[in-house]
Amino acid sequence: MPRQQVEEPFKINQKITAREVRLVGDNVEQGVYPTDQARKMAQDQNLDLVEISPTAVPPVCRVIDYSKFKYEQKKKTRELKAKQTKVVLKEIRFGPNTDDHDFDFKLKHAQEFLKEGAKIKAYVHFVGRSIVFKERGEILLLKFAQALEELAKVEQLPKLEGKRMFLYLAPKAAVVAKAAAKPAAPADKDKAPKAPKEAKPTEEPAATE
After folding, report:
1. Is the per-residue pLDDT at 202 higher than 50?
2. What pLDDT was estimated at residue 105?
3. Over the Cα atoms of the chain, what is R_g?
4. Quick check: is 3 in a domain?
5. 89-132: per-residue pLDDT in tens?
6. Shared domain check, 160 and 103
7. How many structural domains compose the chain?
8. Quick one: pLDDT band at residue 209, thresholds 50, 70, 90?
9. For residue 202, which phi and psi values (nearest 5 degrees)?
10. Given the DSSP bridges, would you call strands 11-12 and 60-64 parallel, antiparallel or unpaired?
11. What DSSP line would sit under the chain, residue for residue?
12. Residues 98 and 133 sit within 8 Å (Cβ to Cβ)
């Protein structure tokens, strides 16, 4: 089977069809040149003429080593993908009658989640006739958001959907940056695991009738 030819993302050398181009870069005198002259300038340096901005008038080109240029572009793409962190969404559930102790417990968990860079979906679940206390649920969620205002921004204010009222929070930019920069805990190679203590033999109790 014949191999499919991969289409290059940029026009280079003879594939550049414009009559004239604008040259930019470090190794040429910048300006507008006839395309044939620009190609010859590239050939004289054993480099390529690469069209980097085809929609400009005239198109913008660089005189560069195309293979090296492609490698740098791929490297930048990989680095950008590596920096993109996967967004984790953590759920925290309340009841309309959540007491202060339970509230503080859930608040502490939310603070930890936000510091790790996760988003939070907090909601109040109304069971049966407790839906009549929806105002109480809204107040609870707003109190929750206010308690986390140093770490989080509100993405969606409390909104009732069926028997649940939802609040969405996202970590602030500074918190996300801190979470991304946090190094993983290094494994302690110097400390060997301690051998378990040898169990002392125990005397069996005498059998009783």
Report:
1. no
2. 95
3. 32
4. no
5. 999 999 888 899 999 999 999 999 999 889 999 999 998 877 77
6. yes
7. 2
8. very low
9. -110, 145
10. unpaired
11. -PPPPPPPSSEEGGG---SEEEEESSSS--EEEEHHHHHHHHHHTT-EEEEEETTSSSPEEEEE-HHHHHHHHHHHHHHHHHH-PPPPEEEEEE-TT--HHHHHHHHHHHHHHHHTT-EEEEEEEPPGGGGGGHHHHHHHHHHHHHHTTTTEEEEEEEEEETTEEEEEEEE-HHHHHHHHHPPPPPP--SSPPPPPPPPPP-PPPPP--
12. no
Token pair for residue 153?
């921004």
Ramachandran region of residue 199, left (φ > 0), alpha (ψ -120 to 50) or beta? beta
Amino acid in position 35: T
Residue 205's pLDDT is 44
Domain that holds residue 18: 11-79
- Whether residues 176 and 93 share a domain: the answer is yes
Domain assignment present for residue 109? The answer is yes
Buried b (16+ CB within 10 A) or exposed e, 36-66: eebbebbeeeebbbbbeeeeeebbbbbbbeb
**Checking phi first, is residue 37 left (phi over 0); if not, alpha (psi -120 to 50) or beta?**
alpha
Tokens of 59: 């198109």
27-31, 119-123, 147-151 — which is least confidently predicted? Answer: 27-31
pLDDT at 190: 47
Is residue 1 in a domain? no
Q: Residue 175: what pLDDT?
A: 77
pLDDT reported for residue 125 = 92
